[in-house]
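Field notebook, page 203. I keep forgetting to write these up properly, so this time I am using the form the group agreed on. The chain and the ligand, magnesium ion, are recorded exactly as supplied. Prediction of the bound pose follows.
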Amino acid sequence: MKIICLGRNYINHAKELNNPVPSKPVFFFKPETAILKKNEDFFYPEFTSDLHHEVELVVKISKVGKHIAEKFAHKHYEEIGLGIDFTARDLQDEQKKKGLPWEIAKAFDHSAPIGRFIHKSELGDLQQLSLGLKKNNEWVQQGNSSQMIFTIDYIIAYVSQFVSLKIGDLIFTGTPEGVGPVQIGDQLTGFLNDIEMFSFKIR
Ligand code: MG
């Protein structure tokens, strides 16, 4: 499986990092080894001193597809989850300055913690999903899928022009505003429509 991540999909997040608002989706990959499951502890990597949380809605692909039309995209996923796109912001800033790829800042082991998944039929309007992250029991990020620049269906149609989607692939759909650093000892707890989706500790 592969993990496809959208960058800059919420206007207020693009602005907080002084990035332009994109006219087309920006995407990058994380490998399978980025997954961290079952609320396992995350170990702060030694290569960064500015690790940021980015809480994101995650779409699990349930049907293979290539060149998927936007109007049929909904047939290619059944479940939505929540995850964190951990980002070594210091490394990413260096790469961005040089115009180089972001992988060292984004694709490292366990950079993609995920929690439970919920069938979309239980979630109501997918363009009105609330998502949020608490750090040590205080809200640090709160957003709503209505603020996404590109919808889930649009993202699937766009990405599948370039890359075939396979069963089990995950799409991280971008983070709302409020990204910030984590420290050893922090507890991160994610919510989708007020349902707790994951909770784990930074070690
Ligand atoms: Mg992200």
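OBSERVATIONS:
- The helical segments are 11-16, 89-98, 103-106, 152-159.
- The CA atoms of residues 37 and 114 lie 6 Å apart.
FOLLOW-UP: compare against the apo run.
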